Amino acid sequence: MAHDDILTVRDLSIAYGGIRAVKGIDFQVAEGSLVSIIGSNGAGKSTTLNTIAGLITRGRGRVEFFGQSILGKGAPRLVKLGLALVPEGRMIAAPLTVRENLHQSRAAGRLSREEFAETYERVMEMFPVLGRRSSQLAGSLSGGEQQMLALGRALLTGPRLLMLDEPSMGLSPAMVDTVFEAIQRVHADGLTVLLVEQNAARALEICDVAFVLQRGEIAVSGTPEQLRDADSVMEAFLG
Questions:
Q1: Concatenated DSSP letters for 211-224?
Q2: Under DSSP, is residue 123 helix (H, G, I), strand (E, B) or coil?
Q3: Is the pLDDT of residue 237 over 60?
Q4: Cα separation of 78 and 162, whole Å?
Q5: How far apart are CA 163 and CA 25, in angstroms?
Q6: Residue 239 pLDDT
Q7: Residue 45 — pLDDT band, cuts 50, 70, 90?
Q8: How far apart are CA 28 and CA 212, in angstroms?
Q9: Do the Cβ atoms of 22 and 216 come closer than 8 Å?
Q10: How many whole angstroms separate alpha carbon 163 and alpha carbon 2?
Q11: Angle, helices 143-155/98-108, rounded to nearest 10 degrees
């Protein structure tokens, strides 16, 4: 059940060389909710997520996480606060083993040794293939397995908010099902999720509320039912 807003974004603007990629957007994420930001390629979705996560520090406006201003704080500090990002392209450490990738989260995150061990077992249970391939180099995994690894690595930081950037990109339909089932599972366990996804139909199947981003602005927002009922939205943004 959703409670108070744990992430609040107000008048967020992000520019690259004079070009405004994001133009003063406002949205919020309530505790316990699953929120999607959807829109076509180039709409500003990833830029928004990377700015919230501290990977882009040039944004203007206000971003608050549990009431604390975090805009421009930088990713390592935000991970310690409980904000985890599974980035587009996964960004795993390819030369390291699966186990080494996962254990990198121990130092980066906010879990105690005991909590990390418990979460590690849960990740292994959720993604058995990671256990079977724990000594395998991460770069040799399939795209879907790398996505599982990236998600497991994020969960092992102990997030209070899990953000995912295009988790279905480049995956087979069967692997997309696996990844979305995992997202639904961690959300059902109480984790708050912010999902950026170009596959709007899949995002609307699992989210509580969605914001449609068009050319750096939020064009419309609402529940999946409200957005599906808006013919203009379906035609313009959702295909």
A1: EEEETTEEEEEE-H
A2: helix
A3: no
A4: 12
A5: 18
A6: 47
A7: very high
A8: 13
A9: yes
A10: 17
A11: 30
pLDDT tens-digit readout, 84-101 = 999 988 889 999 999 999
Residue 136: C-alpha distances to residues 40, 41, 98, 142 (Å) = 36, 33, 6, 12
Sequence-ordered list of residues with C-beta below 8 angstroms from that of 183, at least 6 positions apart, any chain: 34, 151, 164, 167, 193, 195, 206
Average pLDDT of the segment spanning 196-223: 93
| Model confidence band, residue 235 (pLDDT cutoffs 50, 70, 90) | low
Q: In angstroms, how far is CA 150 from the centroid of its own chain?
A: 11
Provide the token pair at 199. Answer: 């596959």
Looking at residue 195, its pLDDT comes to 98
Computed on alpha carbons and rounded to an integer, the radius of gyration of the chain in Å comes to 17
Structure tokens at 146: 């790398």
What Cα–Cα distance (Å) separates residue 61 from each residue in 56, 153, 163, 224, 230?
A: 13, 30, 20, 28, 30
Q: Nearest CA to 196 among 1, 27, 11, 19?
A: 27
CA dihedral 192, 197, 200, 204 (to 10 degrees): -10
**Quick one: average pLDDT of 210-229?**
91
Model confidence at 3, pLDDT cuts 50, 70, 90, reads: low
Q: Are 64 and 7 in contact (CB under 8 A)?
A: yes
